[in-house]
Each structure stands twice: as C-alpha cells, then as structure tokens.
Amino acid sequence: MAEEEISLISPEEEAKVRADKTIAPDLFAMDCGQLPFERMGDAHFELLVADVYRAEYERDNDTWYDVVGRLNDGADQGRDVILFKAGVPAGVIQCKCLKKKLDLGTVIYETCKFFLYAHIRPQIAPPIGETFRYYFAAADDVATDAFEFLQGEGIKRFNDRLDAFQEACEKVFNKSKTFQKNDALNKLTPAELCAIVWQRIPTLETRALRKDSLSALVGKHPSVRNTYFKLDSDAGETLKVVRDYLASLGGTLPAGEEASLSKIRTEYISWELREGDDLNVCLIQGQDLLPFLQGMLNPKSGTLKEVFGSRPIVVTAGSAAATPAQWLEINELVEAYPSPLVLLVGCGAVTGLQLNAWRVADNISWIDPLWEPASAQDYRAGWCWVTNGAEGEISCHVLVETAPKDPTLDHGSFSLRLAFKDMIIWPTLGDDFVNPASNRNSHLRRLIASQAEDKFKRPNLVLASQHIDDLMDVVTSLADYHARRLISPVAIASANSARLQNCKLQLHSATGIFPATETDLNTRSSPPSMQPPSRVMRRSTSGSLTLTLSWGTNIFLKRVRGHRLQAGGITCDLMPSAVELHELFDRHPPSSYYIPEVRDQLAILDDLIEQGGLKDSQSFAYQTRHGVAPEKAFSLEDLAASGKYVMKAVCALSYLKSHGSAKWITEPGSKGHLQLSTPSEGEYNVLAWTNDDYLVRQMTVELYEWARDTANHPHLVVFANAEGKIKDQKLGELKNESEERLDFTTGPRQRGSFTDVSMVNRVYVFPLDEVHSCCDEEETMAVEDFLDDIATRRKTLDAQ
Description:
ATPase, ABC-3C_CTD3, eight-stranded mixed β-sheet
C-alpha cells in the first residue's frame, strides 16, 4: 500500500476563515469568561482550537509538539486539528461544535473511526507503540461519563467497554464507503476491526476540553480571542460607570470588589424572544407549580399553546414554587414543549450535597465552573431552562442565591445573563432582587455594568422569582431598577410563591409586571404612592397570568388572561369583579364568635362565586354599598377598598341565608341579594346595604324613587346601616303626600292624570345591626324566629 501525503488546510485558506467576521459572536467584557463557542461555525471553531495551541507553543507552554495543522481529508474523515513533533504525528484534537453535550457514544465512535483511518493512512498517526494524544474539544460541554472516560488513564476503561467499541467499529464501517472499498478492511469482522483500534490503546492518552477549560485556555491569549470574538466594550469605561453610580449614592467601588462585576455567566443565544415590540410572558403564583406546568406545557393542548401558539414565551414562578425532588418531572415537561421557552423556577432551600450532584449532572449547566459548594451547608437555589425545539437547543442552568438574608444559609457568587439577539434576560432568585447596588454581589450593580457595555442597548427583563409576605423591600428595589430605564429599557416580571400578609400598599399580590399599564382591568393597578406605576394579579392565591408585554416607549399589557386550577386542570379565571369579591372572603374573615351557620353559608357563597355561579359580582357588591341607587361610581378598586363594609353585609346575609327558603339571587336584573318565600308573606327579596357615607334620609329618598319608578318587582326588604338611626319603615303604595315629599327632585303629581302611576312596589327598611347581633353566638336566635319577627313588624307597618 503506497503511503499518501497528509492533506492539510493551507495557510491561505485559514487566513480567509480568520478574516470572515460575519458570524463572530459579540462578548461582554464583564463576564466570567465562558465563551460562546457553540455560536461559531465549524471551520472557525476548528481554526480557533488550532490557533490557541499554536499560541501555547509560542509561549513554550507545551513542548510535546512543534507544528499545528488541520487535516483536510474530506467529510468522510472530518477535519481534525493535528499536532506534530519533528515531523511525526504527536496528537489529534477532534473538534465538536455541537448544540448538545458530547456524549460517550460519540467519543467511542470517533475514536474507532480515526484509528481505522490511521490503519489505511498511517501518515496521520505515529508508529504503533509510540505515545499518541487523542483529545476532544467540545464547543458546548461534555457529558459526565464521556468526561470521566477521557480524563482517565490506563487501558482498563477501554477493556470495560470492549463491546461498545466493537459495535462502534461495525457502525463506522457500514457508514464509510472508503472502508468498504478498502481491501485491508472490507473482509474483516467487527471484532477484527476493533483489534486494529486496540493496537493503539496501550500508548493512547486522552483528554476532554470542555467549554470552561477551553475558555480559560483562549482567555490566556487575547489575540486569539479577539480574532474570533467581538469585544467592543472597554472594561475600564464600564468600571467608571459603576463607580459614578455608586458615588451618586454616596458610596464607592472598592478595588477588591471590581472582580465581582465579572461574576456573570452569560449565555449568548442566537435567536430572538420578541416579535417586534411584543414579548409573551406567563407568571405563575403560589405553590401549585406542577399542576400548572402540566397543563401549560402540554405540547398538544396546553394553555401556552392555546394562548401563544408556537411563539416564544418567558415563564416565571416563585422562588419556592418547586422542591428539589421535582427537577426531573419539570425537565421532562420542558423537553416535550416544542416551542421556544425560557422558564425560571425556584426550588427553595437545598443542601450542598444536592448542589454538588447537580454540578456534575449531564443535563444541568453549573453556573460557576470553579466553585464546589460546601456539602454541610444549606443554600437557596432554582433552575432556569432555555429551550428551542426548532434549533435543537435545550439547557438548564442552576442558580444559587448570592445574598440570602437568612444568616444560616450559605450563598453563591454568580449571576446568570441570557443574552438574546433582541433583549437580555436576568433570572433572579429571592433576596438577590432586593440586594442593593452598594453590596458586593448585587445583581443591580451587574445590570448597570451590562447596560454600559451593551452597544445594542437591548431591553433588560429581570425575572424576579420571589417568596415573600411583605412587598416593601421589593418596592424600594423596583424604583432602583426603574431608574436605569434612561440608559436602556428595564422591566421586572415578578412571580411570588408565598402570599402577601402585610398589604400596606393595598396590593395583595407581588406577581406582576413593573412598570406597566393595562386597560382591560384583568390586573390590578398599583397605588399612586408606589412608583413606577405597575400591574399585579388580582388573585392573591394560586393562579397564573398570561400576557403580551408590548415594549415601546412605555410598557403596555395586551391580551391579559388569568388562569386557575379547577378539578386538577387549568381554566380561565373569573371575571375581575368576581375575583375581587372572592378575595374579600379571606381579607375580611368572619368573627371567631360567629355561629357555624353563618360560617357555613359564607363558605357556600364563596364557592358559588368561585364556580362562576354569581353572574354579576360587581352588581352584588355594588348593592351592599349603594343599594338601589343607579349609576354611582364603583370601580373594581372601590370594590376592594370597601371590603370591610361589603363583607359586613355579606355576613348578615349569610345568617339570613340559613333560612330554609332563602336563595342567593344569582342572575342580574333584580334588586336584592336573597330571595325568600314564606306562607304569610309570599316571595320577597332581601337587600343588605351598609354605607356610613349615606345619611339615612338619602337612603330613604333613593329607596322611595326606586319603588316609585320600578314595576313588576318582588317586594324588597332592606337591612340598612347609614349615618343616623335606622327605624322600621315602609316605602311604597303612596297613600298621602308625605311620602311624595321625600322626592325633592320633582313636583307633586296631578291626581287622576295620565302621569299618575299607582305605586305597587313595597320597600321595608330595618336596621342591619339587628341581623349582625344574631350572627354572634352569644346573642343569636333561630333565623326562623328572626324572620317571623320581621314579618310581624312588616304587618305593623302595613297597618299604619
């Protein structure tokens, strides 16, 4: 067999590749140095590896080779970096620019392929028996089993996998026309082919170059890095921006803290999240995370597909929404979701042992390649997935809180920055969001540095994964982040896995978009005292929001929908007014002294509202404050602010509802809250009306006008509370001019004229406090007895 010359790519061809900057990735200077090799083309990545080894030789860092070249033996063999010593091959570096981790199966396959080629082209390897280095350089990462295999020593690791090597030799042979036509190979069995490979094993040295180690190697040679990557920013200028900001707050940037600005793990992502100005967002509140994700991420009929189709979406849940044990189930849901997705989920407290298990897991990216957590310590952690089925990309990053307020917890040091083509995402866990810029590991400080570096001035979206019961610290941080909007746009998408207890700002949810406006009222507006103006969920318990964030000069929310769990599945949430009325039941619970009948009826009514059985919740609540008065202002914010009074009326009504004939009035069009029927009185409606801003006379006038102007309506019994003393009173069936004089807006009627309408509606008014007394277990009386007494008093009024 005639020996062939090794075919290498020429220096001229290599120079053309270096000169092509069209796909050179942009870099941030303030970064941990993890380079986006996966965004390079195959030729650029191979040449980068060759150039960095040339630079190492020139520095006398490696003496086992003296010449570096790139094989040019066609697609069948591939293009490897080959290294020579005194004209003899000393090693080969297989360059794998994959969008996934290099696995052991690929390592075994490529090893067999190379040495079978070396058998028919011996010029690419040294004589059998001489030491030969066989390395793999992976653009992304290396699976644990592949890494351990390549970093190992000795022949045992090969012998343990002899069957796998034989199978790989058979696959290589079946795929290669070159081998099938070669007389030296085409009559050999898989075992005989493997024996050829095995001749090289005793003197073979292997090694894996992962993203972190290869990044560190490139980082030693700025000329190589600057050839293949774009680095337009100046670290000195960025530091000055941060110093000036801290100086404006009366602080400084100590020299010892400058390095902390670079503790950012950046993922450079080649696709876009937005469509024009629109970004699709889903926020999940509470701790029912798995049922929500199961219903949302279903690839065929999930909520996200129904709402957004195949468009990219960003999903955030609270910082304790999951548990560490749920990673596998969540990961399977994410892997099955076919459309572009960013998902941030917190898993609360984890042990150092658990973090170390994730650190070496194949399908998890560890945020800090140089850090090994202390196994005896506890931390707070979470995960951030980035997937794009169309691009074949899926990654899961472990996040560790860098500034937990709990002194018993240890901490991480790194932030994660997802640099998409059109925006930057900052996944942020728990207390890291409220960590001020004056502190060493401040995420805000790193965002400020990033803004200074980003020549594209891309919008920044901070995903704030929270588990809080008080909003005050968050409000302070919101203002700090919002102040950065003049440099480049900044917004916060927050999700809370806890429930707010301290609601001084009259906000009962920390899940929302800050800043933002919305016109459809599916979210609640922040109060004027809170800046920037923002929108949060109306529901304070478990639920979710899907929305499209339109990011123009200001942020406007479009197509906002609330979602909740019912019977294990996800359904659209109630109308905003029903949500607000439902929320009042928890915010203003009944007194502990109330009788069980009242508590039971309250629970039944709340369930009726949750099931959508009360068709007009806003009218129901309106009547507790404004009775029969038409068209008074009563916004959803008014409803929430009136909760104490609304629930006072509802508690009284719940006592009356315990009567066997009582029914809630669920359909609109009729005044009152309850419908009752007794043999002596027939059917009538009951309305509870409490408003300290009303004078008793004003109430009486409005009831009189309603009775006068309304026909074909059941008699109305009103239990009222107002400014002044409520006395038993009957309005309707005009018998004298004294009642007509209650209406001071019109002149007297002309008796007998065609405008004279006989008033047929009766309205009876009684004190609401009497009903409340009956709710108390010490003063209660049977509801039948109470209503019998009311019936007797009605007859007395009728007789007057």
